[in-house]
Amino acid sequence: MRVFLTLARAASLGRAGQVLKMDPATVGRRIARLEARLGQRLFQRSHQGYALTEDGLRLLPHVEAAQAHLRAAETPSDSGSGLSGQIRLGAPDGCANYLLPQVIANICAEHPALEVQIVALPRVFNLSRREADMAIGVSAPQAGRLSVQKITEYHLHFAAARDYLDRHDPITRVADLRGHQLVGYIPDMIFDSELDYLARLDLPAAQMTSNSVPVQLNLLRQGGGLGVVHDFALPHAPELQRVLVKAFSLTRAFYLIRHADDRRNTRLGQFADALRRGMCAQVRQLEGAVLQAELPAQAISENP
């Protein structure tokens, strides 16, 4: 069962072997033996790796539940309510890079026996295939056997490097952006309509694009132009300055997405509560730091 669960998450004999400290061929033999014993094909083999079949997907939650019960039984009675074991969390790369590190570090400091894996991918996670134990999304899924909870709202604005702004005329309205280079997402790689920030603006297509939020941020830091940036990412890029703050502002939200079968999993529930509290506090802190940093400049402009 342990080999099955590891291969389901790793999707590769080689990666599963590394986790299990087994030869990949041994992993393959164990899975073949399990399939023969159950009389079911649990994995579909292809050049892309190992993917769970329908039989494998049906078996997976039972194995995960057995693992959770075993971990609970192995936990010493004097360990209090501390979390332990491994939890894999999927998240968009902007959230994973600029918001989650401090949140997860704080949770793990409080629960030393807990291992958290952050999988940062610019796409939607497939929880039905157990790519992660839970995922953070920028919209609430409307299909699937999922449990969805809103975590917190966050804000986005146009921003550019200060030296870029110094080399150009002041930008006072959205129409002024037509004379500037824009940074944004690769259009056909926008995996959620909530990320199509420029869709409703009458502006030329972005000249510099990436499916990665950190790449977009670094393009802006190098003076590449203007782009829409998460306010919570700005403290990580002090070279950037928000523009058109009153003329253009977006509000989006993060959602915690879990498989419906996990709603009664106490361990995952405790982690989810800690994650929500931490993310709410971190967004408030980082966005507040941006506002505080802009106060002196605003005071000067209002009182010349």
Automatic annotation (TrEMBL):
<dbReference type="InterPro" id="IPR005119">
    <property type="entry name" value="LysR_subst-bd"/>
</dbReference>
<dbReference type="GO" id="GO:0003700">
    <property type="term" value="F:DNA-binding transcription factor activity"/>
</dbReference>
<keyword id="KW-0805">Transcription regulation</keyword>
<comment type="similarity">
    <text>Belongs to the LysR transcriptional regulatory family.</text>
</comment>
<dbReference type="Pfam" id="PF00126">
    <property type="entry name" value="HTH_1"/>
</dbReference>
<dbReference type="GO" id="GO:0003677">
    <property type="term" value="F:DNA binding"/>
</dbReference>
<dbReference type="InterPro" id="IPR000847">
    <property type="entry name" value="LysR_HTH_N"/>
</dbReference>
<dbReference type="InterPro" id="IPR050176">
    <property type="entry name" value="LTTR"/>
</dbReference>
<dbReference type="InterPro" id="IPR036390">
    <property type="entry name" value="WH_DNA-bd_sf"/>
</dbReference>
<dbReference type="InterPro" id="IPR036388">
    <property type="entry name" value="WH-like_DNA-bd_sf"/>
</dbReference>
<protein>
    <submittedName>
        <fullName>HTH-type transcriptional regulator GltR</fullName>
    </submittedName>
</protein>
<keyword id="KW-0804">Transcription</keyword>
<keyword id="KW-0238">DNA-binding</keyword>
<dbReference type="Pfam" id="PF03466">
    <property type="entry name" value="LysR_substrate"/>
</dbReference>
<feature type="domain" description="HTH lysR-type">
    <location>
        <begin position="1"/>
        <end position="53"/>
    </location>
</feature>
